[in-house]
Amino acid sequence: MSEKFSPALLAARAADERVAECLRDSRSFLLEAGAGAGKTYSLVETLRYLLISQGEKLRCQNQRIACITYTNAATGVINSRIDGNQLVFTDTIHAFCWSLIKGFQSILREKIAVLPAWQEKLCEEPSIEKQRVEYDLGHRRINGELISLHHDDVLALTAALMPSEKFKSILAGKYPFILVDEYQDTSREIMNAIKENLLGRAGGPLIGFFGDHWQRIYDETCGHVNHDALTEIGKGANFRSSISIVKVLNNIRPALPQAVKDESFIGSAVVYHTNTWAGSRRTGAGGGHWKDDLPADIAHQYLCKFIEKLKTDGWDFAADKTKILMLTHNTLALEQGYASLAKALRYPDKFIKKEDEYISFFADKLEPACGAYQRGRYGEMFSLLGDAAPKLISHDKKVRLSKIMNELIALRHDGTIGQLIDHICANHFPRLPEAIMRRENEAAAQLEKPDEEVSESVKLTRQLRKISYQEMIALDQFIDGHTPFATKHSVKGDEFENVLVVLGRGWNKYNFDQYLEWEGSGSVPVDKQDVFERNRNLFYVSCSRPTTRLALLFTQKLSCMSLQTLKAWFGPDSVHSFAP
């Protein structure tokens, strides 16, 4: 079908015209754009409209349009599409907030003094009357000359300053237009401050929100935004997916129906479940979030056989064609080669979100620094190591550093995590984070004690030290998306030709059988609304990634109600039992 007459294009144009009306009428708005609707396109078109209609006025009054994003990658995409126009300030929410508050040094010191997260640090330096407040690497530090802010502090301080009339006046004077990309990922604290202090304010600014609250999958974020001063606009288009997939998405989300780009592009969307397996499923012992899932080895067998089946159905499992989205962590860890790490850390967020100090150091500093060293990018290596990088003074020190790094890289392939840590400690390079040193010292002090007599922290450190560092490399590659597999967060915003979603237990915050039952009954307990939305959003994000083919494989047992829900969404002929 010619794009000129594409149903998706007609729906998109209608939504974009409503945005233009809001701009002409000086009304703040919220564009709710479902998966594949072309949200970024609408955002860029809005910027272009403002640059044409308001550019000269902005230039004369020394003002700019603020475009707030949530990743550096998104910032780069938007800047490239507007040719880096200097009338637009495009940056992350943290950079934008810091640009607003950094001139309020004395007030910042007053606010920092009462922030709960700073109370322990302030005991080290009780007087904070003259220090310069800075935000650079995102680490909390304080001394007689400097206060360095954490990323969370920047948002908290901005929210604390927002009620000030002087602050609001300066903000509106600099940025009469503020556009927020992925608005649903804004912290609750910042969004509440915007709603209470900026939306509907007589002196502006005009605010435009672009996003989709059904794609909110991060904790402590605002989700959908309601306000009397906001005009909500639904963008009912899908430029990404085939008819079969869009039909499923529309059944899941009837309140925002999407029109397809090409009515001849059929594709496929199917569901397979494992209810007929006759063996004993997991009982939830040691954590109820495993209940009713297949044992890990059986789940692995099912996945392998299911992939074989899909290949015979025409699926191409090349990494650039197909993504396997794992929403069950026992299968994921086994497939990816970090099962011991997953077992030791127990909760997925500890390693997938890098909440454990060891994982954070290895994934964010050591692994990328080793990669830079192997590519001969020594400046990049030091930059990645940050405070851990030494100052090279002599040739001898350079030779010594090369020897340390070569030994370290060798240990990455044939040593344990403990051996790697010991090598770093023995050579004093790179400098280990204080949190890891505390855990290492605590474990060393209790070396002779059996596991039953030590703390959980020491027990965990002992377990981690025994694990092959190869598992850490496998985990890091998985987190960074260098495999056919993916986590729930790593594919948000991406698209692939084919997507296989494996759904089971193991995530303590997700139970898809329960979610499907709630959807089928149309009744969600009042105290479970957050749980329901968390499961719904992840399910929707997962199902909306493919362009052509979608397949779901449930390793957890599904109730009759859940199966009925899936049949209502996918069609009764598209829901099947699967047995290897």
From TrEMBL:
Organism encoding this protein: Nitrosospira multiformis
Pfam families according to UniProt: AAA_19 (PF13245)
Alphabetic keyword roster: ATP-binding, Helicase, Hydrolase, Nucleotide-binding
Keyword S-adenosyl-L-methionine: no
InterPro entries: DNA_helicase_UvrD/REP, P-loop_NTPase
Protein name listed in UniProt: DNA 3'-5' helicase II
Top-level taxon of the source organism: Bacteria
Single Gene Ontology BP annotation: recombinational repair
A GO term, aspect molecular function: 3'-5' DNA helicase activity
Database matches in SUPFAM superfamilies: P-loop containing nucleoside triphosphate hydrolases
Gene Ontology cellular component list: cytosol
UniProt KW Hydrolase keyword: yes
